[in-house]
UniProtKB/TrEMBL annotation:
Stretches assigned to coiled coil: none
E.C. no: 3.1.4.52
4-aspartylphosphate carried by residues: D59
InterPro entries in the record: Biofilm_reg_signaling (IPR052155), CheY-like_superfamily (IPR011006), EAL_dom (IPR001633), EAL_sf (IPR035919), GGDEF_dom (IPR000160), Nucleotide_cyclase (IPR029787), PAS (IPR000014), PAS-like_dom_sf (IPR035965)
Residues spanning the membrane: none
Protein name: cyclic-guanylate-specific phosphodiesterase
Gene3D superfamilies: 3.30.70.270, 3.40.50.2300, EAL domain, PAS domain
GO biological process: cellular response to nitric oxide; phosphorelay signal transduction system
EAL domain ranges (all copies): 455-709
Length: 715
């Protein structure tokens, strides 16, 4: 009797006869129905617009709007409302027309109350079933829409394959990730979207004997994007088998779903793989230059040594240290220094063979592995190529800078049969290049080997020597070749070691260069020499000249000029009495920068001398451009002064050049009167060497200054 358990059915009763209308309404109310009466068709239409009904029971023959007109309104306003006709019309035409218009049943007047109530219950039950079915259909549609939304909104590609690996279903995620429309893949084999490198592994993955719902197949593969829209991407695929006996779509109409045998997901892990690759790259590469780092270099060296041993070949390890990089870094800043390192790495890399490994070892140091060499000449050829590649200037913004490279070479197995030993020995060879003027290469030899314990001990002692004032300054006279008078003194350092006695420069200066103690050492030597010679200048020798050697590290320092001037002022030493000696290599390392510094010093009154002239570049270009005052002829040429020897010809040329450029000239290493006489005949201005005495401490020099002319002593 009720539409639902909570609510009685609402019945609209329509008739134009008030008596019959009231009678039917009373019967229905007695059966607990909710009843609304409408006297005629017009009132019925009004009620339909105001209230909702489960069933309308109406007469057909009414004067204003007949039953068919009311049925039309019901279908328009309340299509879910059932209609039962209660009419005196019994002709076939009227009944047929009513049923075609949507009437669920037809009761002829006069009616039997029980028959009428039974018919009404049947109609209400039918309407209840229709509503229930509609509700279920709605829920199914919503559920299907929800599941479709969930599947298509999944962050993963969801797919189904048949037993042969063809797509039965794929969600729309594949469109956004790989550019394929789902429909175009249906029926295609999934191998069609696999990257060629993973086709074999991917197609065999689903054929494993133990794959099950509890043990799905999981693998990582690369999938191709459609066209060139995106690059190949990495996916983690998880595939489950579908049991045909339990698959609920066996009786479905969708042939593709019915044939499905595998269900799976494909998750895009490209970002994770790229992150892993980046982390791996960070672990084994230098991020600034993109070169292999120390760890990767050692791995490759270890492998190359194993292969070389098996093949009976040689290999080379090169240790490269940039010359003058610190100057650029300190002068132009770390950003420019980083750009320089990147540019250097690119130039070096272009010089290498396929299979060579260039790595950044740290700072401005690089290591190079050259596997599969036939002999030393192969390594020598590459070393020269690297040096030449860095000789051209680097353009850093508005700045043009020059750097060189010092290269130490250790050959396997000659220079060591272990990884650390090869690298260490290449490093030792590189420092020997530094000690001999930089910008070159040397092979490691056993004579270079310095015992680590002794070397560390000597370094410790040298640091203590600087603190304890153990350095001594000796002076070697520079004598006028004509008058024999002492016109200058070259300051030379000695180390009064508390245990080893007096040490000469060759015993400790290379170590001072290597450990960067050379600047402190040179400053101490200059300070002592300025104090000693300053006293002699003030005590009757106003023209006495002090000559000091400066290390490349000092000259290349950004504050070299300022520091030197401050030191002279602190010692109250007249700058016009100072002559600094630098080598040609220092000048040519960075001609523009060095020339600016030398001009400032010359303007300040300081004299500039080129030491060991003839052993380096010997370029007339820089002699003409720079404020050079003195050329010092290297002693190796002076010792060659004998009849017909090449050394004499070189001395002739250097002296003639100096005269032509109006430069003073000092010949080093004069040991006998034959050499002295020859130099006098050439017009050489000044000489120094053992012929006039060995370097001596300050107290021994004071006496010689009083002698005029200077007396030569036996060598």
């Amino acid at each position: 009797m009720s539409a639902t358990a909570e609510r009685p059915a609402h019945i609209l009763v329509v008739d134009d006869d008030p008596r019959l209308l009231n009678s039917l309404a009373s019967l229905l109310r007695f059966r607990k129905y909710r009843v609304t009466e409408a006297l005629g068709g017009v009132q019925a239409c009004e009620k339909l617009r105001q209230l909702e009904f489960d069933v309308a029971m109406l007469d057909l023959r009414m004067p204003d709007i007949d039953g068919f007109g009311v049925m039309t309104e019901i279908s328009r306003l309340q299509p879910d409302c059932g209609v039962v006709v209660v009419s005196g019309e019994s002709g076939f035409t009227a009944v047929s027309r009513a049923l075609r218009r949507g009437a669920l049943d037809y009761i002829k007047k006069p009616y039997d109350p029980e028959e009428l109530l039974t018919t009404l219950e049947a109609v209400l039950h039918q309407r209840s079933l229709v509503r229930a079915h509609a509700a279920i259909q709605c829920r199914l549609q919503k559920s299907e829409a929800l599941h479709r939304y969930i599947v298509n909104s999944s962050p993963d590609i969801v797919f189904m394959l048949d037993k042969d690996g063809h797509f039965c279903f794929v969600n729309s995620k594949i469109k956004t990730v790989l550019g394929y429309a789902p429909d175009e893949l249906l029926g295609s084999h999934f191998g069609a979207i696999l990257d060629e490198r993973d086709v074999s592994r991917g197609t065999h993955a689903l054929k494993g004997p133990n794959i099950s719902a509890d043990n799905p197949r999981t693998l990582e593969v690369r999938l191709k994007a459609r066209g060139s829209r995106k690059a190949t991407r990495h996916f983690e695929i998880t595939a489950f088998p579908i049991d045909p006996e339990t698959w609920s779509h066996q009786d479905g109409t969708s042939t593709g779903h019915r044939d499905a045998r595998f269900y799976g997901t494909a998750r895009d892990v490209t970002e994770r793989k790229e992150a892993e690759a980046f982390i791996n790259f960070q672990a084994y590469h230098d991020l600034l230059t993109r070169l292999p780092n120390r760890a990767l270099f050692k791995d490759r060296l270890n492998l190359a040594m194993t292969q070389a041993k098996r093949a009976g070949q040689e290999l080379a390890v090169m240790f490269l240290d940039l010359d003058r990089f610190k100057v650029v870094n300190d002068t132009l800043g770390h950003a420019m220094g980083d750009r320089l390192l990147q540019a250097v790495a690119q130039r070096l890399d272009r010089c290498l063979r396929k299979g060579d490994t260039l790595s950044r070892f740290g700072g401005d140091e690089f290591t190079l592995l050259l596997p599969a060499l036939n002999n030393h000449e192969d390594a020598r050829r590459i070393a020269r190529k690297l040096i030449e590649a860095l000789r051209a200037p680097f353009q850093l913004g508005e700045h043009e800078v020059f750097v060189g490279v010092s290269i130490g070479i250790a050959m396997y197995p000659e220079a060591g049969d272990s990884l650390d030993q090869l690298i260490q020995n290449a490093d030792i060879a590189m420092y020997h290049v530094k000690a001999r003027g930089k910008d070159g290469y040397r092979f490691y030899s056993r004579s270079m080997c310095i015992d680590s314990a002794n070397r560390l001990s000597l370094e410790r002692d040298l640091r203590l020597a600087l603190e304890r004032d153990e350095l001594r300054v000796f002076y070697q006279p520079q004598v006028c070749a004509v008058s024999g008078r002492t016109v200058g003194l070259e300051a030379l350092v000695r180390w009064q070691h508390p245990e080893q006695g007096l040490l000469y420069p060759g015993d400790f200066l290379p170590l001072a260069e290597e450990t960067r103690l050379i600047s402190t050492l040179s400053e101490q030597v200059l300070a002592k020499a300025c104090r000693d010679v300053g006293v002699w200048i003030r005590n009757g020798h106003p023209d006495l000249r002090l000559a000091v050697n400066l290390s490349p590290v000092q000259v290349e320092h950004p504050r070299f000029v300022e520091s030197l001037m401050e030191q002279l002022e602190a010692c109250d030493f007249p700058p016009q009495n100072l002559e600094i000696e630098i080598t040609e290599n220092v000048i040519m390392n960075d001609l523009d920068q060095i020339s600016q510094k030398l001009r400032k010093l010359a303007d300040f009154g300081i004299r500039i001398a080129i030491d060991d002239f003839g052993t380096g570049y010997s370029s007339l270009n820089y002699l003409h451009r720079l404020p050079i005052h003195t050329l010092k002829v290297d002693q190796s040429f002076v010792q060659g002064i004998r009849s017909g020897e090449d050394g004499a010809c070189i001395v002739n040329a250097i002296v003639a050049m100096a005269h032509g450029l109006k430069l003073d000239i000092v010949a080093e290493g004069v040991e006998n009167d034959v050499q002295l006489a020859y130099l006098r005949s050439l017009g050489c201005h000044q000489v120094q060497g053992f012929f006039y005495g060995r370097p001596a401490p300050a107290d021994a020099v004071v006496g010689s200054l009083q002698n005029a002319p200077f007396r030569a002593t036996a060598s």
